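Exercise 7b. Backbone tokens:
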């Protein structure tokens, strides 16, 4: 009977340790998730910025391309000065 008592007292001591270990793991996982979320937000902001920059570069490229097709002495969609 004393062995059963020792087993139950060991289990009752081990349970709080396991609980503390689980709480520690949960805390670590929550911290990791928070860091990953911050990194994801930062990356999305960088993507948004790069998309805007790409759009600007693309517009400038198209403008330059049109200028090559229509040299500067031939204005694009402009009325002559006598209008």
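Sequence design result:
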């Amino acid at each position: 009977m004393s062995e059963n008592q020792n087993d139950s007292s060991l289990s009752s001591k081990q349970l709080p340790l396991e609980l503390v270990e689980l709480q520690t793991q949960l805390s670590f996982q929550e911290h990791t998730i928070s860091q990953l979320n911050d990194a994801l937000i930062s990356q999305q902001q960088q993507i948004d910025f790069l998309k805007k920059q790409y759009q600007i570069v693309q517009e400038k490229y198209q403008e330059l391309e049109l200028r090559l097709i229509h040299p500067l002495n031939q204005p694009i969609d402009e009325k002559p000065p006598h209008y």
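Instructor comment: The chain has one helix and no strands. Residues 2-69 form the longest helix (68 residues).
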